[in-house]
Specification:
Shape: globular
Distance between the termini: 43 Å
Strand content: 15-25%
Number of strands: 25
């Protein structure tokens, strides 16, 4: 099993990125471009030497390197302080002491008796003279990948190939569709891997017989005779024939079918199920200690996703599984305690939060919403959410906040729990809250977060008072509804609500007892509405 992985200058990861893994299931959750897929690729590349289904030595490309690292290198070539060509590195730390030939201190931490290895794609000194000649002529305008080599070295300082690595991995990406002659390349490769050598020989022979039968068909013979009779220039007969190709040409000419339908014509969801099931069941996956799964929820119905997740849980309890997902269902089903949250290359495990028990007991939906949005506005209830949405639409040409990546989330009274998560992952968050007539208590409650650049606490700084009572209790003039009435007129809200109140206190009571209905009417009305300053502060798209 893998204890820890360190990634440097690989694709989206600039500099050093470090991630500790759980022994069993690991669920990577993050927005697009957060690095989830890159982590899976890095692990698979380091363990197998494979990238995009091919050996890395045939796939070396400048695009494997982080753009910023490459830019800094190229920019430096025009200065006196020239940088060395950047190095891509993936460092794998194994769990325990089960790999003695991999143990040593040749690791970035200089820790003794630690098992693991480093995979690098680095400039080779063998090409130093030629490189320096080009450098002196100013002819290097892009990363000179032709001078790079991929290599593996253990923590015991032994050079190895990927074949010597004792931990094997399988990467399953059922959402990737590449068709060749009507058949999916991915599933063709899976089918080939499942088959025994004798099975492949049998298919090849059957394919050859099919090709031979084509040429022997009486209709084809007649057509070939007609073609040859029309040829007067070419010396020799011209005929139609099926291409024998290479010994494995059957892979390109045969089409995989499901229930008699070509694979490329069945639904995307069904394709995902078939590809994932085959990938998980073939010998390579069963031999692998690490199973890497890219977004298993892609194109799947709830029922199929449930079946797939149950299969993963039941069949692979003895393996280390790393899953990237956007699905709250996947996270819940496999266990929120296995969540690894990624944002802006920052890592947070759910159990590291003081509020971890709270999030584990939640359905998980709101948690993932916060992690996956560009910015969040946290409110107390559904009526607040509707009002904030309307305020945002008025300021942004009728667009809902979600169109700009801004999610308005009702969190009840759990503001502090969500803010802890936002602080650690540096997620921009605005809190819209009532002052409830006690500014001192409010400021004390959010004191820890007032200095956080990514967090805004938005509330009305004026405490309003009045004589209205609801039953025997004093009416709270410092909630959303009375603050809205304060900024608008009695006539405005009578029009919106279809009421005829002549007294503001009567309207306040109506709004208190019909919070959701009033919020819906505010959201839908074509009336112009003035919103309190603290709401306007929250919706600023900064």
């Amino acid at each position: 099993m893998i204890k820890k992985i360190k990634i440097s200058n690989f694709k989206s990861f600039y500099g050093l990125f470090e991630l500790e893994l759980n022994q069993g299931i690991n669920i990577l959750v993050g927005n697009n471009e957060s690095g989830k897929s890159t982590i899976l690729e890095a692990i698979h590349l380091a363990l197998t030497g494979m990238y995009n289904g091919r050996g890395i030595r045939n796939e070396l490309s400048p695009y494997l390197f982080n753009n910023q690292a490459v830019k800094e290198y190229l920019d430096s070539l025009t200065t006196q302080d020239k940088k060395q060509p950047p190095t891509l590195e993936v460092e794998i730390f194994f769990e325990g002491r089960g790999f003695p030939t991999f143990e040593g201190n040749n690791n970035s931490e200089r820790a003794n008796q630690v098992a693991g290895f480093r995979f690098t794609v680095a400039f080779s000194e063998a090409y130093k003279d030629e490189y320096e000649l080009l450098l002196s002529k100013g002819e290097i305008k892009s990363l000179p990948i032709e001078y790079y080599e991929a290599s593996w070295i253990t923590f015991a300082r032994s050079n190895i190939t990927s074949k010597s690595i004792p931990v094997k991995s399988v990467l399953i990406d059922s959402s990737n569709y590449r068709y060749q002659n009507g058949s999916d390349v991915y599933i063709s490769r899976i089918v080939r891997d499942i088959l025994e050598p004798q099975d492949i020989i049998s298919i090849s022979q059957a394919h050859r017989n099919m090709v031979d039968g084509f040429a022997a068909d009486p209709a084809i013979k007649t057509i070939n005779e007609k073609i040859s009779s029309e040829s007067t220039i070419v010396d020799g007969d011209i005929s139609l024939s099926a291409d024998l190709g290479s010994k494995n040409s059957w892979e390109n000419s045969l089409v995989t079918q499901v229930a008699g339908v070509p694979f490329s014509y069945i639904g995307k969801g069904a394709q995902c199920v078939v590809k994932t099931e085959l990938a998980l069941s073939h010998k390579r996956a069963q031999d692998a200690g690490i199973v890497l799964i890219e977004e298993p929820e892609s194109h799947l119905s709830f029922a199929n996703l449930n079946q797939l997740i149950s299969s993963i849980q039941n069949k692979y309890q003895d393996k280390q599984i790393i899953i990237s997902t956007h699905s709250s269902y996947v996270a819940n089903k496999l266990g929120l305690e296995k969540l690894i949250l990624l944002n802006d290359h920052k890592v947070l495990k759910i159990h590291e939060l003081s509020s971890s028990d709270f999030f584990k007991k939640m359905a998980g939906y709101d948690t993932l919403r916060l992690i996956l949005c560009k910015k969040a506005i946290l409110v107390e209830g559904d009526s607040d959410e509707l009002v904030i949405q309307r305020a945002y639409m008025d300021q942004n040409d009728g667009k809902l906040p979600i169109y700009d990546g801004i999610d308005v989330i009702s969190v009840g009274i759990a503001f502090l729990r969500f803010l802890e998560l936002a602080k650690k992952l540096n997620i921009p968050v605005a809190v819209v809250t009532d002052n409830d007539g006690d500014l001192e208590a409010l400021e004390k409650k959010y004191e820890e977060y007032r200095s956080c650049a990514n967090i805004k606490i938005c509330y009305d700084h004026i405490v309003d008072t009045g004589t209205l009572k609801i039953g025997k209790s004093d009416y709270n003039y410092n909630t959303l509804e009375p603050k809205l009435l304060k900024e608008n007129s009695l006539a405005t809200f009578n029009t919106i609500f279809g009421t005829t109140y002549t007294d503001e206190d009567e309207l306040r009571k109506y709004m208190k007892h019909h919070k959701t209905e009033c919020a819906m009417r505010i959201f839908d009305t074509e009336q112009s509405i003035t919103f309190p300053n603290y709401i306007m502060e929250a919706i600023k798209n900064e």
